[in-house]
Write a structure and sequence with these properties.
By secondary structure, the chain is mainly α. The protein is about 80% helix and about 0% strand.
C-alpha cells in the first residue's frame, strides 16, 4: 500500500517529489494534516491549546527516557505523551483546581522532568535537536502505517462522539446528567490528541506543534460560518499548507527546514483570511 501511494505521489510533475524520502514525507503529512486540523478545531472550541502545548513539551522527557534505557525514542515519546495526557485529565477530575491550573502544573512538571533527564544524559542533547525542530523527512514506513490506523480511528471517534465531546466541553455536569460517559470520552480524546501532538512534534518540532493545530483552525474560523464548514476549511488549509511547505522547503533557492516552512505558509493563509474578513466587513 505504501509503495503504491508513494508511486502515485511520484507522478506529480515536481522534481523534488521524485525521491523516495520526499514521497514518504508528503504521504505522512497528508495523513497527519487532516487529523491535526480536525482536532485543532476542537482544541480551539474547547480552549485546550495549553493542553496540546503540555503534551508537546513532554516529548523531551519521552525521548530522553528512550535514549537512557536504549529504547526506540519515538515510541517512548508517544507512550509518555499519552501518559501525560491521561494524567492531566485525571488531575482535573480528581481535584478541585481549574483545568488551566491542572494543565499548568503538569506542563511545569514534564518540562522540569525532561530537563532533569537530559541533564543526566549529556550525550542525548544532539539527538534531541531533531525533535526540537522536527524532521518529517525522516519518517519511515512504520510511522506511516501508524498514521494509517490513527486517521480512521479519529474519524470514527468524531462520528460517534462529537455531540458527547461538545456537551462535555460546554458543561460536564449536564453531560453526565444526560447519560454521557464523561470520563471515557475525556480519556479517549486526550489519548488521541496526545498521539496526534506527538506525531506533529516529529513533523514540525516541539516549538511549533501547537501552531500546527491552532493556525489552520483559526484560519478556518475566518473562512466559514458554521462549525461543520470550519472542519472542512481546516482540513483543506492544513493539507495545502503541508504540501506547499514541503515543496517550497525543498527548492534550492529556499532550502529551509520543512516544519517551520509549513507553519509560515499556514500563517500566511491566516493573514490572508483575516484581511478577507475585514474587507467583507467593510463592504457589508
Amino acid at each position: 500500500m505504501i509503495d503504491l501511494l508513494c508511486s502515485a505521489i511520484g507522478c506529480i510533475p515536481l522534481d523534488c517529489l521524485q525521491h523516495r524520502f520526499m514521497q514518504q514525507a508528503l504521504l505522512g503529512l497528508l495523513l497527519l494534516a487532516p487529523v491535526a486540523a480536525v482536532l485543532g478545531v476542537q482544541v480551539v472550541h474547547f480552549r485546550m491549546a495549553f493542553f496540546s502545548d503540555a503534551i508537546g513539551h513532554s516529548a523531551f522527557a519521552g525521548v530522553a527516557l528512550g535514549l537512557i534505557f536504549s529504547l526506540e525514542p519515538r515510541m517512548t515519546m508517544l507512550a509518555f505523551g499519552i501518559l501525560v495526557g491521561a494524567g492531566i485529565i485525571a488531575l482535573q477530575r480528581r481535584s478541585n483546581i481549574s483545568s488551566d491550573l491542572a494543565i499548568g502544573v503538569v506542563f511545569s512538571a514534564v518540562v522540569a522532568f525532561g530537563l532533569l533527564v537530559v541533564s543526566r544524559a549529556p550525550g542525548s542533547s544532539r539527538s534531541l535537536q531533531q525533535f526540537l525542530l522536527g524532521d518529517i523527512l525522516t519518517i519511515g514506513p512504520d510511522e506511516i502505517r501508524f498514521l494509517m490506523v490513527l486517521l480512521p480511528a479519529i474519524v470514527l471517534v468524531q462520528v460517534l462522539g462529537f455531540n458527547s465531546l461538545l456537551s462535555i466541553a460546554l458543561n460536564p455536569v449536564m453531560a453526565r446528567a444526560h447519560g454521557v460517559h464523561v470520563a471515557l470520552w475525556q480519556y479517549l480524546f486526550a489519548a488521541l490528541l496526545a498521539a496526534v501532538v506527538i506525531f506533529s512534534v516529529w513533523a514540525v518540532g516541539v516549538l511549533l506543534v501547537t501552531a500546527l493545530l491552532i493556525v489552520p483552525a483559526a484560519c478556518a474560523r475566518n473562512m466559514s460560518r458554521s462549525l461543520f464548514g470550519m472542519f472542512w476549511w481546516a482540513v483543506v488549509l492544513s493539507i495545502l499548507s503541508a504540501f506547499l511547505g514541503l515543496v517550497l522547503s525543498a527548492q534550492p533557492w529556499l532550502a529551509s527546514s520543512t516544519g517551520p516552512t509549513i507553519i509560515v505558509v499556514s500563517c500566511l493563509f491566516f493573514v490572508l483570511s483575516t484581511i478577507s474578513v475585514r474587507n467583507r466587513g467593510r463592504l457589508g
